[in-house]
Amino acid sequence: MPSITRRTFVGAAGTAAAAQVPARSAPNVLFVMLDQWRFDCLGANGNDILRTPNLDALAARSANFTQACVQAPVCVPSRISFFTGRYPHSHKNRVNYTPYQQPEPMMQELLGDGGYHTGSVGKLHFHPPTADHARETGFDRVLLDDGIRRTDAHSDYVKWRAANDPRASLHYQATIDKVPSGQNPYRAAIDKEFTPTAWTGRETRNVLQDLASSERPFFLFSSYFKPHSPHTIPEPYDALYNEADIPLPRQVGLEYIQRLPLPVQKMILRGKPPYAMDRRLLQWRYRSYYGDVTWLDEEIGATLAELERSGQSDNTIVIVTTDHGDQMLAHGLFGKNVFFEDSVRIPLLVSWPGRIRPGVYSELIESVDLLPSVLELCGLPIPDHVQGRSFVPLVAGERSHYQPRTAQFAENVMPEVITNGDEGYFFSPGKGVGGVRHPDAKMIRTNRWKMNYYVGHGGELYDLEDDRGEWVNLFDEPSHQEIVRDLKSELLDWMIAADENDQIARRWLV
């Protein structure tokens, strides 16, 4: 049978599922997403400097997946994989702000058809970036703020601030003009209460109050722009880590960068490359990043407290994660768009009291696994088009029924073509982009090995056991060619098999 499309699913399974979900018998779903949050920036994941008491408490009562990875180290492809349970080459949203044009429904529509009220607050990153479009994808209530100037005309936060902040003429990412010596140069010019982070937290809790009072279960997606750059941060969070000496990544030079495969070089050296930036300024960036994460911890803590007050805490699946990590100048790069662990490995916390067994889970988990897991927990059918696998047996006491992954996969268009030509990167069919003939790169990651493959430009092979920082590229080493061949073979098998349900009919129709 071909893949279930939005039309067939809504027309058949959706109606049946809705009828099968009596009021309040199904769990609610609170899905919190941060943007560009590193795996190691969580106290529960071993960071002894960063203060995240609310998230640490949540981790203690959650399945804390310590080997989760995204399917693309860039916002939109990763988010669409979370929402569809499909790999980027299948859902075809490969770069930012491209329209989702596939027929398969997203998480919010599947849950909505199953009887759920659905809401979204904050960053969606859909295209077109409008509330009307977000509602077309299945959200009943939408409050938008994507956090960039190009989408401000559609931002509910920007409209709210214009009507409420006496200093609304200042841009929400502006920093103060004169920074006192020895203080944070990224201090925000606007007050905390008027920032996107504070707005997203407040509106999340307002929508949560309304949804929790309904007779139907709810799905609420709460999405923060931070700790994404720029690292503008208001008082008092700008000074939280003034005395901290945060370990910085190894400094690299041009010689190291030019030994990397050409697509990776292009990523690191685009625009005005910061690999040689002043280390004191880098320390302030880390302090600002840490301050943002502590602030987000407070906002999420307040939302969890509101959930408790609503009386729905025991019957709510809580998910906290991110769309990708942040290099923070590791390997000479800020941001993401590469396959280093700093970009693809993510925090992932999933809790449901009495149903999900708390603990640290080291199994290989992919972001496409979240959708089928949520559907199973909610008692809804998993459509054929979903390519992830449910981790419910693993976390619900049925480990013997769970088949662990042996590998994870990620994809990325390199060099990044989401710059709209700002840095001279235009994709030309048949010619590539930025001097790279085949910009679509693939990653395979096992418990020990990671191989990144760039057609026509070689690859990278890292031993994650002996070389956690991914500094020694073994791809061309004669002693490791058998490993390279095996990983290439597994990568090929994945590319062939991933779309099997889409491409092979179960039976003839005539």
Describe this structure in words.
There is one protein chain. The chain has one domain: 3-Layer(aba) Sandwich (Alkaline Phosphatase, subunit A), CATH 3.40.720.10. The strands form three sheets. It has an eight-stranded mixed beta sheet with strand order 5-4-6-1-7-9-2-10, with helices on both faces. The chain is α/β, with parallel strands linked by helices. It is globular.
Low-confidence stretches: 1-22
Number of helices: 16
* SSE class: alpha/beta
- The portion of residues forming beta strands comes to 5-15%
- Count of structural domains: 1
Proper CATH architecture: 3-Layer(aba) Sandwich
Please give the share of residues in helix.
Answer: 25-40%
State mean pLDDT (0 to 100 scale): 93
Rg over C-alpha atoms, rounded to the nearest angstrom: 22 Å
Query: Based on DSSP secondary structure assignment, what is the total number of beta strands?
Result: 15
Widest beta sheet: strand line-up? 5-4-6-1-7-9-2-10
Topology (SSEs and partners):
Blueprint: H1 6-19, E1 28-34, H2 53-60, E2 63-65, E3 68-69, H3 75-84, H4 88-91, H5 107-113, E4 117-122, H6 131-136, E5 141-144, H7 156-164, H8 196-212, E6 218-223, H9 254-257, H10 262-269, H11 279-309, E7 316-322, H12 341-344, E8 345-346, E9 349-351, E10 359-361, E11 365-366, H13 370-377, H14 392-395, E12 408-413, E13 440-445, E14 449-453, E15 459-463, H15 481-497, H16 500-503
Parallel strand pairs: 1-6, 1-7, 2-10, 3-11, 4-5, 4-6
Antiparallel strand pairs: 2-9, 3-8, 7-9, 12-13, 13-14, 14-15
